Amino acid sequence: MNRLVVVSNRVPLPEKGAQAGGLATALEPLLRREGGLWFGWSGAINEDAQDSALHFTQAGRLTYATIDLSPAEHQGFYANFANGVLWPLLHSLPELMRYDRADAEIYLATNARFADALLGQVRRDDLIWVHDYHLLPLPGLLRARGVRNPIGFFLHIPFPGADLLALAPPAAALLEALLEADLIGFQTDGDLANFATAAETLAGARRPAPDRLEVAGREVQLGVFPAEIDAPAFCATAARAAAAPNVTRLRQSLAGQSLILGVDRLDPTKGLVQRLNGYRRLLERHPGLHRRVAFLQIAPVSREDVASYKTLRIEINRAAGQLNSEFGDPDWTPLRLIAKGAPRDSVAGYMRSARVGLVTPLRDGMNLVAKEYVAAQAPEDPGVLVLSRFAGAARQLDAALLVNPNDPDAIAEALNRALHMERRERQTRWQAMWDAIADRSPLEWGFDFLRALQRAATTSAETGLELAGAAPRSPQLRPVPFAAASSAIN
After folding, report:
1. How far is C-alpha 476 from the chain's CA centre?
2. Which of 161, 179, 367, 464 is most buried, judging by how many CB atoms fall within 10 Å of its CB?
3. 55 catalytic, yes or no?
4. Where are the domains of the chain?
5. What is the average pLDDT value for the chain, to the nearest integer?
């Protein structure tokens, strides 16, 4: 395969250990196998970042190349625009958006610095794969600097309707820059359709086919690539972790109570306040469940420099305190709220011990926690997944109990049903969800995207040559050895 160059905002450097998150979970198996270059932000904030050189780390065949951010870049690019404007807007939560033109300018300037730093590392036959909302304009910035390589872009989070996107003043310019990619991938067909409409409405693209756009005399391919987990491996991890001391202590502390488990970052899109309201409604309507059920919500704090996250933490702590003071007893705490992360193995063991997995984001691109909960279950006695219908995972895991996360009564009804569900129905639902994820993997997901990128780049180059007399962008494409990769996976 051509050398793979992955570009993401944050790079999970090996010296920092295994890191949670959908992007790292999806990409690391591919890059460990194929090698290449992983480029992005180091995670460090440095007053002299603009003048600092690239930092390099080698791990096997994979090279990590990172740059630091200055305090102004971290605030304007990362906190204020990427996470204060794009994140809520792309999740269809415009009321949380806080736009300032100065932040938008820093966002663009920081992307330009990414492009400048990457330029000297790109070889003629590299495949470039850009990831997520932090780097929307990067394909256009690379093209403006003469990069002719195949460029793919994957959005890990949802994409809203065109009218919502237009609320961000730079929306049209961002779309125009993004459309310089050869392939743009999404988690669901709904996200793809929303993007295509926005590209037509705001960026003057034409849509000759459901999965293809034409813009400025060239074609841009669109595709749906649901992010995956290694379900059999996670199942084995959960089975081992179930006997670990910390997981054993959790089960002992329950004293026979059924465990409801939520695992989410403390984030406004995850629907945590709504989830607590649903659990409250369950306890109000079903007093017979008092002392028979416990809810453990693991919600590590994130993005503390974003105002909406600070507000959410205060609101969650208040709601949790009120729930426990109203329904709890000296020997029973109905809600256990943990505002720090837990090791991945421990979470797998907790999932296997939980009668109910409660995953109710207001919107989510995919939500790999839902898939991990399914994978963690013991087939002979599985738990029940209660899942937001607005998570991308709901397309594959439609045998879960699907709920509208804005309806506390629906959450309460689903929880009650899950807690009382007979084993045969639990097994039937679990088997259907397991079948949907068991034969997929992050490695196959990556190869699917790269094969599509090679096809798209070839088509784009040929179309550009025919329509505009341009030179092909990448004359030395080698096919991804998918058959060999698939046999290695199996």
Report:
1. 32
2. 367
3. no
4. 4-227+442-489, 231-437
5. 92
Angle at 422 between CA 419 and CA 428, to 5 degrees: 110
Separation in Å, CA 133 to CA 137, 183, 223: 9, 15, 17
Q: Please tell me which residue in 103, 264, 364, 448 is annotated as part of the active site.
A: 364
Instruction: Single out the catalytic residue among 74, 132, 156, 182.
Output: 156
Query: Which residue has 């102004």 as its token pair?
Result: 72
pTM given for the model:
0.92
Burial of 117 (0-12, 13-18, 19+ CB in 10 A): middle
User: Under a CB-based contact definition with an 8 Å cutoff, are residues 7 and 131 in contact?
Assistant: yes
Residue 115 has pLDDT above 80, yes or no: yes
**Backbone torsions φ then ψ of 463, nearest 5 degrees:** -65, -45
234's CB contacts (< 8 A; 6+ apart) are: 348, 372, 375, 376
Q: Which of 58-62, 175-179, 462-466, 480-484 has the highest mean pLDDT?
A: 175-179
218: nearest Cα among 474, 466, 449, 455: 466
Cβ contact 72:140 at 8 Å: no
Tokens of 177: 């820059």
Q: Which fold, 231-437?
A: Rossmann fold (3.40.50)
Distance CA 215, CA 408 (A): 44
pLDDT computed for residue 467 by the predictor: 44
Active-site residue 100, yes or no? no
The phi, psi pair for 59, rounded to 5°, reads -140, 100
The pair of structure tokens assigned to 102 is: 């100065």
**Model pLDDT for residues 334-391, shown as the tens digit of each residue:** 999 999 989 999 999 999 999 999 999 999 999 999 999 999 999 999 999 999 999 9
The pair phi, psi for residue 122, each rounded to 5°, is -85, 130
In terms of Cβ atoms closer than 10 Å to its own Cβ (0-12, 13-18, 19+), residue 484 is: exposed
CB of 118 within 8 A of CB of 67?
no
The DSSP-derived string for 8-59 is EEE---GGG----SHHHHHHHHHHHHH-EEEEEEEEEE-TTGGGPPPEEEEE
Calculate mean pLDDT across residues 256-273: 96
- CB crowding 300-336: b at 16 or more within 10 Å, else e: ebebeebebbeebbeebeebbeebbeebeeeeeebbb
Task: Estimate the share of the chain in helix, then strand, then coil, as percent rounded to the nearest 5.
Answer: 50, 20, 30
The two domains 4-227+442-489 and 231-437 share their CATH topology (first three levels equal): yes
What is the pLDDT at residue 474?
44
